[in-house]
C-alpha cells in the first residue's frame, strides 16, 4: 500500500541527491502522481499504443520500470497478442523487489521478467514496443545516444519507442511560464513551498532535461525517422518513435 509522500515535508539539515531507495519506493505512486502532470494519462495510453503496435512473437521492454506501472499497462494492451513477453529493468534493488510483488499481484498469462540491472547493459532483441517512461533524463547525457541506438537496433520493423520526459524550452518566456505552471500543479496537489524547494535541490544534477528538439535530433541519430510528440502537459510529455 502506497504511503503519502512527505519525504521533504520537514527542514532537512542537508538535502542529499535524489535516489530511488526504500524511502522513495514506499511513497513513489503518490510522489509521481502529485509531481508529474499527465502521468496517469501517459500510463493509460501505453496500453492503447501497445494494443495497436505490439507484434505477435515479440519482446516488450520497460526500461527504468520503477514499480511497474508501464509494465502493467503494456500487459493490458497484450490481451489479443500471441506469444509475447515483457522484460522490465531497473537498477534499484528496492524498486525491483516491490515491482515483482506488484506484477505477481495482477494475474495474467503474459510472462514478465523483472531484472535488476543498468538499462545500458541490456541488449534489446526482437522488440515491438520499448518504453522509457521518465527514465532517459536520469542518464548522463553522453550515455543517451548509445541507449537509443541499442533500442533502435533491437526493434522489429514497425516497432515503437515510447519516450516520456520532462522538457526544457529554448524560448525563455515560454520555459518560465511552463515551469511556473508545473509548480502551481504541485501546489494544487498539496506540496508545500518547503517540499518543492527541497525536492528541487535533491534533483539538481541528477535529473538533466533536454529540449524536444534535442530529443528529436538524438532519436534521428539513433536511426528513428518518424518521431512525434503525442502528448504534453506543461513541461512534461511523451514522444512516439517508429522504426521503418
Number of strands: 7
**Estimated radius of gyration:** 18 Å
Characterize the largest beta sheet: strand count, sense, and whether it forms a barrel.
7 strands, mixed
Structural class category? alpha/beta
Q: What is the strand content?
A: 15-25%
For the terminal residues, how far apart are their CA atoms?
Answer: 42 Å
Regions with little confidence, pLDDT below 50 for 5+ residues: none
Q: Which word captures the global form?
A: globular
Instruction: Give the mean pLDDT.
Output: 97
Task: Note the run of SSEs as H and E.
Answer: HHEHEHEEHEHHHEE
Strand neighbour order, sheet with most strands: 3-2-1-4-5-7-6
Tally the helices: 8
Helix content: 40-55%
Catalytic activity: prephenate + S-adenosyl-L-methionine = carboxy-S-adenosyl-L-methionine + 3-phenylpyruvate + H2O
Protein name: Carboxy-S-adenosyl-L-methionine synthase
Domain Methyltransferase: 62-159
Family: Belongs to the class I-like SAM-binding methyltransferase superfamily. Cx-SAM synthase family.
What can you tell me about this protein's structure?
- The chain is of the alpha/beta class and 244 residues long.
- Helix content is 43%, strand content 20%.
- It is built from eight helices and seven strands; from the N terminus they run ααβαβαββαβαααββ.
- It has helices at 22-35, 39-53, 69-77, 93-105, 141-154, 172-188, 193-203, 212-222, and strands at residues 59-63, 85-90, 112-116, 127-133, 155-166, 226-233, 236-242.
- The protein has a seven-stranded mixed sheet with strand order 3-2-1-4-5-7-6, with helices on both faces.
- Helix 2 (39-53) packs parallel to helix 3 (69-77) and helix 5 (141-154) packs across helix 8 (212-222).
- It starts with 21 loop residues before the first helix and ends with a strand.
- The relative contact order is 0.17.
Amino acid at each position: 500500500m502506497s504511503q503519502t509522500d512527505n519525504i521533504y515535508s520537514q527542514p532537512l539539515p542537508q538535502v542529499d541527491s535524489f535516489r530511488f531507495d526504500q524511502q522513495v519506493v514506499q511513497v513513489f505512486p503518490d510522489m509521481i502522481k502529485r509531481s508529474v502532470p499527465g502521468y496517469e494519462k501517459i500510463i493509460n495510453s501505453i496500453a492503447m499504443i501497445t494494443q495497436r503496435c505490439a507484434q505477435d512473437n515479440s519482446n516488450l521492454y520497460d526500461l527504468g520500470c520503477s514499480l511497474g506501472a508501464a509494465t502493467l499497462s503494456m500487459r493490458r494492451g497484450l490481451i489479443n497478442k500471441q506469444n509475447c513477453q515483457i522484460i522490465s529493468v531497473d537498477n534499484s534493488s528496492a524498486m525491483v523487489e516491490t515491482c515483482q510483488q506488484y506484477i505477481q499481484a495482477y494475474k495474467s498469462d503474459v510472462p514478465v521478467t523483472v531484472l535488476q540491472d543498468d538499462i545500458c547493459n541490456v541488449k534489446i532483441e526482437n522488440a515491438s514496443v520499448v518504453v522509457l517512461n521518465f527514465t532517459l533524463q536520469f542518464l548522463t547525457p553522453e550515455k543517451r545516444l548509445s541507449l537509443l541506438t541499442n533500442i533502435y537496433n533491437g526493434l522489429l520493423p514497425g516497432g515503437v519507442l515510447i519516450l516520456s520526459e520532462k522538457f526544457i524550452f529554448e524560448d525563455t518566456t515560454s520555459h518560465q511560464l511552463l515551469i511556473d505552471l508545473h509548480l502551481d500543479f504541485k501546489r494544487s496537489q498539496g506540496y508545500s513551498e518547503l517540499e518543492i524547494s527541497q525536492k528541487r535541490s535533491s534533483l539538481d544534477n541528477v535529473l538533466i532535461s533536454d529540449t524536444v528538439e534535442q530529443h528529436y535530433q538524438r532519436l534521428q541519430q539513433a536511426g528513428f525517422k518518424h518521431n512525434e510528440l503525442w502528448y504534453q502537459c506543461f513541461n512534461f510529455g511523451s514522444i512516439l518513435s517508429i522504426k521503418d
